[in-house]
Amino acid sequence: MTRPAGRALATAALAVLLAGCGGGPGGAGDDAAAPDRPGTTAPPSSAAAKSARPLARSVPVGLRIPAVGVDTPVMRLGLAADGTVEVPPVTDDDRAGWYRHSPTPGQVGPSVLLGHVTVGTHGDGVFRHLARLHRGDRIETRLENGTAAEFTVTAVRTVRKAEFPTDDVYGDVTQPELRLITCGGPRVGEEYRDNVIVFARLAATSPAAS
Fold this sequence. Notes:
single chain; mainly beta; Sortase, Chain: A; eight-stranded mixed beta barrel; globular
Protein backbone atom coordinates (compact mmCIF):
# COMPACT_ATOMS: atom_id res chain seq x y z
CA MET A 1 0.00 0.00 0.00
CA THR A 2 1.31 3.42 -0.87
CA ARG A 3 -0.05 6.85 -0.05
CA PRO A 4 -1.46 8.07 -3.41
CA ALA A 5 -1.77 11.73 -2.39
CA GLY A 6 1.94 12.09 -1.65
CA ARG A 7 3.47 9.48 -3.90
CA ALA A 8 4.36 11.70 -6.88
CA LEU A 9 6.03 14.27 -4.66
CA ALA A 10 7.84 11.68 -2.58
CA THR A 11 9.25 9.71 -5.48
CA ALA A 12 10.48 12.82 -7.28
CA ALA A 13 12.15 14.05 -4.13
CA LEU A 14 13.71 10.72 -3.22
CA ALA A 15 15.86 10.63 -6.35
CA VAL A 16 17.95 13.43 -4.88
CA LEU A 17 17.28 12.94 -1.18
CA LEU A 18 20.85 12.04 -0.30
CA ALA A 19 22.76 14.20 -2.74
CA GLY A 20 25.22 15.31 -0.06
CA CYS A 21 24.63 12.33 2.25
CA GLY A 22 26.56 13.99 5.05
CA GLY A 23 29.82 13.75 3.13
CA GLY A 24 32.89 15.52 4.42
CA PRO A 25 36.63 15.70 3.83
CA GLY A 26 38.37 12.57 2.64
CA GLY A 27 37.89 9.95 -0.04
CA ALA A 28 35.23 7.32 -0.48
CA GLY A 29 35.21 4.44 1.99
CA ASP A 30 35.69 0.77 1.22
CA ASP A 31 31.99 0.23 0.52
CA ALA A 32 31.41 3.35 -1.52
CA ALA A 33 32.30 1.83 -4.89
CA ALA A 34 30.43 -1.45 -4.44
CA PRO A 35 29.00 -2.47 -7.83
CA ASP A 36 25.61 -3.96 -8.52
CA ARG A 37 25.70 -7.52 -7.22
CA PRO A 38 24.69 -10.34 -9.53
CA GLY A 39 21.71 -12.19 -8.15
CA THR A 40 20.54 -9.39 -5.87
CA THR A 41 18.83 -7.04 -8.29
CA ALA A 42 15.51 -8.84 -8.81
CA PRO A 43 12.42 -6.93 -7.60
CA PRO A 44 11.77 -7.83 -3.97
CA SER A 45 8.34 -9.30 -4.64
CA SER A 46 9.90 -12.10 -6.72
CA ALA A 47 11.21 -13.95 -3.66
CA ALA A 48 9.43 -17.22 -3.05
CA ALA A 49 8.98 -17.12 0.71
CA LYS A 50 5.69 -15.89 2.14
CA SER A 51 5.74 -12.87 4.43
CA ALA A 52 4.32 -12.82 7.94
CA ARG A 53 0.87 -11.45 8.77
CA PRO A 54 0.74 -7.63 8.41
CA LEU A 55 0.84 -5.49 11.54
CA ALA A 56 -1.24 -2.56 12.68
CA ARG A 57 0.29 0.89 12.30
CA SER A 58 3.02 1.64 14.87
CA VAL A 59 5.89 4.08 14.45
CA PRO A 60 9.42 2.58 14.42
CA VAL A 61 11.68 3.61 17.31
CA GLY A 62 14.70 1.37 16.74
CA LEU A 63 16.53 -0.58 14.04
CA ARG A 64 18.96 -3.52 14.34
CA ILE A 65 20.95 -5.07 11.48
CA PRO A 66 23.25 -7.65 13.10
CA ALA A 67 25.20 -8.51 9.92
CA VAL A 68 26.60 -4.96 9.68
CA GLY A 69 26.62 -3.95 13.34
CA VAL A 70 23.73 -1.47 13.21
CA ASP A 71 21.72 -0.81 16.39
CA THR A 72 20.22 2.66 16.19
CA PRO A 73 17.29 4.72 17.41
CA VAL A 74 14.95 5.80 14.60
CA MET A 75 13.69 9.35 14.19
CA ARG A 76 10.76 10.57 12.09
CA LEU A 77 11.41 12.36 8.79
CA GLY A 78 9.08 14.32 6.54
CA LEU A 79 9.53 16.72 3.64
CA ALA A 80 11.86 19.71 3.73
CA ALA A 81 10.72 23.21 2.72
CA ASP A 82 12.03 22.69 -0.82
CA GLY A 83 9.97 19.51 -1.27
CA THR A 84 12.86 17.06 -0.88
CA VAL A 85 12.74 14.25 1.62
CA GLU A 86 14.32 15.15 4.95
CA VAL A 87 17.42 13.26 6.07
CA PRO A 88 18.69 12.77 9.62
CA PRO A 89 20.85 15.63 10.92
CA VAL A 90 24.61 15.31 10.53
CA THR A 91 25.77 14.78 14.11
CA ASP A 92 28.19 12.58 16.00
CA ASP A 93 25.26 10.52 17.33
CA ASP A 94 24.11 9.67 13.81
CA ARG A 95 20.87 7.68 13.59
CA ALA A 96 18.47 6.31 11.00
CA GLY A 97 15.20 7.99 10.08
CA TRP A 98 11.79 6.69 8.97
CA TYR A 99 10.00 8.59 6.20
CA ARG A 100 6.64 9.25 7.86
CA HIS A 101 4.69 9.42 4.61
CA SER A 102 5.46 5.73 4.00
CA PRO A 103 3.77 2.82 5.84
CA THR A 104 5.16 1.90 9.24
CA PRO A 105 7.27 -1.30 9.27
CA GLY A 106 4.97 -4.31 9.17
CA GLN A 107 2.07 -2.54 7.45
CA VAL A 108 1.28 -3.57 3.88
CA GLY A 109 3.45 -1.49 1.57
CA PRO A 110 7.06 -0.26 1.36
CA SER A 111 8.27 1.32 4.61
CA VAL A 112 11.26 3.59 3.91
CA LEU A 113 14.18 4.24 6.27
CA LEU A 114 17.10 6.52 5.46
CA GLY A 115 20.58 6.93 6.86
CA HIS A 116 23.95 8.48 6.11
CA VAL A 117 27.00 6.64 4.83
CA THR A 118 29.33 9.31 6.21
CA VAL A 119 28.64 12.26 8.51
CA GLY A 120 31.33 14.77 7.60
CA THR A 121 33.97 15.33 10.25
CA HIS A 122 32.07 13.01 12.63
CA GLY A 123 33.19 9.95 10.65
CA ASP A 124 31.20 6.91 9.54
CA GLY A 125 27.43 7.12 9.20
CA VAL A 126 24.94 4.64 10.61
CA PHE A 127 24.43 3.01 7.17
CA ARG A 128 28.15 2.96 6.38
CA HIS A 129 28.18 -0.78 5.63
CA LEU A 130 24.70 -1.17 4.14
CA ALA A 131 26.12 -2.40 0.81
CA ARG A 132 27.61 -5.42 2.59
CA LEU A 133 24.20 -6.95 3.26
CA HIS A 134 23.17 -10.07 1.35
CA ARG A 135 19.94 -11.81 0.52
CA GLY A 136 18.70 -13.62 3.63
CA ASP A 137 20.26 -11.24 6.19
CA ARG A 138 17.98 -10.17 9.04
CA ILE A 139 16.71 -6.66 9.81
CA GLU A 140 14.72 -5.95 12.97
CA THR A 141 12.60 -2.86 13.56
CA ARG A 142 11.42 -2.07 17.08
CA LEU A 143 8.01 -0.41 17.10
CA GLU A 144 6.40 2.08 19.46
CA ASN A 145 3.76 -0.45 20.55
CA GLY A 146 6.38 -2.89 21.88
CA THR A 147 6.39 -5.18 18.86
CA ALA A 148 9.50 -6.22 16.93
CA ALA A 149 9.04 -6.69 13.18
CA GLU A 150 11.73 -8.88 11.62
CA PHE A 151 12.49 -8.56 7.92
CA THR A 152 14.62 -10.69 5.60
CA VAL A 153 16.73 -9.03 2.89
CA THR A 154 15.56 -9.97 -0.61
CA ALA A 155 17.80 -7.69 -2.71
CA VAL A 156 20.65 -5.17 -2.44
CA ARG A 157 21.06 -2.71 -5.28
CA THR A 158 23.57 0.06 -6.04
CA VAL A 159 22.11 2.45 -8.62
CA ARG A 160 23.02 5.82 -10.04
CA LYS A 161 20.99 8.61 -8.47
CA ALA A 162 20.06 9.78 -11.96
CA GLU A 163 18.43 6.38 -12.53
CA PHE A 164 16.74 6.00 -9.14
CA PRO A 165 14.16 3.16 -9.36
CA THR A 166 11.17 5.03 -7.95
CA ASP A 167 8.64 2.36 -8.92
CA ASP A 168 10.65 -0.38 -7.21
CA VAL A 169 11.05 1.70 -4.05
CA TYR A 170 7.57 3.22 -3.78
CA GLY A 171 5.47 1.05 -6.10
CA ASP A 172 2.42 -0.81 -4.83
CA VAL A 173 3.11 -4.16 -3.15
CA THR A 174 0.68 -6.59 -1.56
CA GLN A 175 2.69 -7.40 1.56
CA PRO A 176 4.78 -5.64 4.23
CA GLU A 177 8.19 -4.66 2.87
CA LEU A 178 11.11 -2.48 3.92
CA ARG A 179 13.46 -0.16 2.03
CA LEU A 180 16.75 1.05 3.50
CA ILE A 181 18.52 3.80 1.55
CA THR A 182 21.91 5.48 1.75
CA CYS A 183 24.58 6.83 -0.59
CA GLY A 184 27.29 4.87 -2.38
CA GLY A 185 29.55 4.74 -5.40
CA PRO A 186 32.34 7.18 -6.27
CA ARG A 187 32.49 10.43 -4.33
CA VAL A 188 33.48 13.85 -5.60
CA GLY A 189 33.74 16.44 -2.87
CA GLU A 190 30.74 15.94 -0.60
CA GLU A 191 28.53 14.15 -3.11
CA TYR A 192 28.15 10.47 -3.99
CA ARG A 193 27.14 9.32 -7.44
CA ASP A 194 24.93 6.41 -6.39
CA ASN A 195 22.36 5.20 -3.91
CA VAL A 196 22.48 1.86 -2.11
CA ILE A 197 19.00 0.40 -1.65
CA VAL A 198 18.19 -2.64 0.47
CA PHE A 199 14.87 -4.40 -0.14
CA ALA A 200 13.44 -6.65 2.56
CA ARG A 201 10.22 -8.53 3.36
CA LEU A 202 8.48 -9.09 6.69
CA ALA A 203 9.35 -12.56 7.99
CA ALA A 204 8.22 -12.64 11.62
CA THR A 205 6.88 -10.57 14.50
CA SER A 206 7.44 -10.83 18.24
CA PRO A 207 7.46 -8.74 21.42
CA ALA A 208 10.44 -6.39 21.34
CA ALA A 209 13.37 -7.32 23.57
CA SER A 210 13.71 -5.11 26.62
